[in-house]
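Quick one:
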Amino acid sequence: MRRDRMLGWLAGIALLATTLPALGGSVDWGSLDPGTQTLLSPWQGAWNTLADDDRQRLLANAHRWQSMSAADRTALLQRQTQWDALPPAERAHLRARNAAWRQLPASEQAQISNAATRFDALPTTQQAALRARFAAQPAEWQASWLLGPSIGAWLDQAGTWFAYVPASDRDATLRMLQDLTPDARAQLFEVSRRLPSPQRERLREDLLNTPQAQRAALIARRLE
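Output:
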């Protein structure tokens, strides 16, 4: 059971809060050291068919495991046990949050990590008050902050403009907003708050269908 939990972590089942390092290049199974081969033995038969990114992720996890102290390994396995005990719906929710984290630019990941460090330094009572304040907000408001501080703050101003974006368009819409400059996002807010819902949705579709380099100009024209 202990080995199964460790292998589950290696497969990426456990939720990670950081981007794993890329090792670069394609690695043949035969070039791995015996210890790494033992850890990754469940994937030996399929190793040559795995995508390079998947192999690098498995190798990064294996190397991280090998570098851990006995205490750190025990703590990780305990977290894996807690993860396994969560209801499926809760695990799906956490995976979605992790996916949203991985899509954020490195600068915003750093900003969030710094904010988390400051939060951890607060008194327990103040942490509890902030959590309660956040939990009292509407679900769509909470979800908007998964898109990162810049986009979250923009959507906080823009209300529910993107609250009902089709699931098939969500990633593209997020990338579109992230690619805009702060000035262009500010102009987009001014345009969107003047439009009724059907025209706001049409504007969103128009922006998705416009090349990235031309989107700021489109927003400026609509603002005029």
